[in-house]
Specification:
Layout (H helix, E strand, L loop, with lengths): L5 H11 L6 H4 L1 H42 L28 H36 L2 H40 L7 H17 L3 H5 L3 H14 L47 E4 L5 E3 H9 L6 E2 L8 E2 L4 E3 L1 H29 L1
Antiparallel strand pairs: 1-2, 1-5, 3-4
Helix pairs in contact: 4-5, 4-8, 4-10, 5-6, 8-10
């Protein structure tokens, strides 16, 4: 058999090897071959998808068949991994979960404080404004509606306290090393018990001891009766069965008078600031000037009969007192104007 010379082999090799910059032009068949490779790769990727789809189709058909024979026997493949909620009992809590309970209790406290800062203040402001502009039956009806809202807010506040105190009690129990069995049941039971105990109280016992309700009723009285002594809170709440007798002097606290005049300027309070130690209020500029003239350790309270030491750090602005003072002054001015008109009519 004849053998090709080396020059011929070299020439054939040179014809087979394309130029690097003319691959597509000289050998288009090579491109076609690559396409075959790509298409073959697509077939390999498509094959698992087809198999998976066929499995799903067979599974669906089997499930439909079982459904016709016994609907209760149908079960998803993933159900074996799910938690059976109905038969999954509460797990015991130990000291490690104590921090979580404490965090939830703090959440309840935070929400409760937000209601204090917003809703309670709004209810008080609405009530004092209505007391200032309305009179007679209109005032009584409007204030009665706001009174119901205020009581509802107090009820909600107590319910939140029930959740907060129950969680805090469970936290303390865990911190003492006592595990808690049936935590959800015990939690719900204790919260319900606290709420029921509150609901079983008389109206006086529910709201008479609430600082928010006392301030609410006193604010209305101050506007409607400027300069008069504020009666005890029990005078605003009718006695019910289970309340102590109104004749029991030991339980009756005498009324007080809210003075809207600054003890320094002897004029109506302006931008009042209240002492956190003795509770006396002063016009902002007046008390600042008063304390500037004293030592850094503070001066005695300028209110008559009070010997408490005062510094600027002990004073807080009281916008609620300022509003009540303005309303009381406005109402007092209207009463004086009405009195002058009556006197003029008598003289004529």
């Amino acid at each position: 058999m004849p053998v090709a010379s080396s020059s011929r082999r070299k020439s054939a090799r040179s014809r087979r090897e394309p130029s690097s910059d003319r691959i597509e032009e000289d050998y288009p068949s090579q491109h076609a071959g690559n396409n075959d490779d790509v298409e073959g790769g697509d077939d390999e990727e498509e094959q698992p998808r087809r198999i998976k789809q066929e499995k799903k189709t067979r599974k669906r058909a089997r499930r439909d068949s079982e459904s016709d024979n016994d609907p209760h026997a149908v079960m998803d493949d993933d159900e074996d991994d799910r938690i059976d909620i109905e038969n999954f009992h509460d797990q015991p809590l130990d000291k490690k979960e104590g921090g979580k309970l404490s965090g939830i209790a703090q959440d309840w406290e935070m929400i409760r404080k937000q209601i204090h800062q917003g809703s309670f203040s709004l209810a008080k402001e609405v009530a004092t404004s209505l007391a200032d502009v309305l009179e007679g039956d209109d005032a009584n009806q409007a204030l009665l509606e706001v009174d119901d809202i205020m009581k509802t807010l107090i009820n909600i506040d107590h319910e939140m306290q029930s959740h907060e105190k129950t969680l805090s009690g469970m936290y303390q129990q865990l911190m003492c090393g006592e595990p808690i069995e049936g935590a959800v049941y015990l939690y719900e039971k204790e919260v319900k018990k606290r709420i029921n105990e509150f609901n079983d109280r008389t109206t006086r016992k529910k709201y008479g001891s609430s600082e928010q309700y006392v301030q609410f009723k006193q604010g209305i009285f101050e506007v409607q009766n400027p300069g008069e002594n504020i009666p005890p809170i029990n005078d605003f709440i009718p006695r019910e069965e289970g309340d102590e007798s109104d004749d029991d002097d030991d339980l009756e606290i005498g009324g007080v008078t809210q003075d809207f005049k600054c003890p320094i300027t002897l004029t109506m309070l302006v931008n009042p600031m209240k002492s956190s130690t003795c509770g006396h209020a002063f016009s902002g500029d007046a008390i600042r000037d008063y304390l500037k003239k004293g030592p850094p350790s503070g001066k005695s309270c300028p209110s008559a009969g009070c010997s408490q030491k005062l510094t600027m750090a002990m004073l807080v602005a009281d916008s609620s007192l300022e509003k009540r003072a303005k309303l009381a002054a406005r109402r007092a001015q209207r009463d004086d104007d009405d009195s002058d008109v009556d006197d003029d009519e008598v003289i004529e």
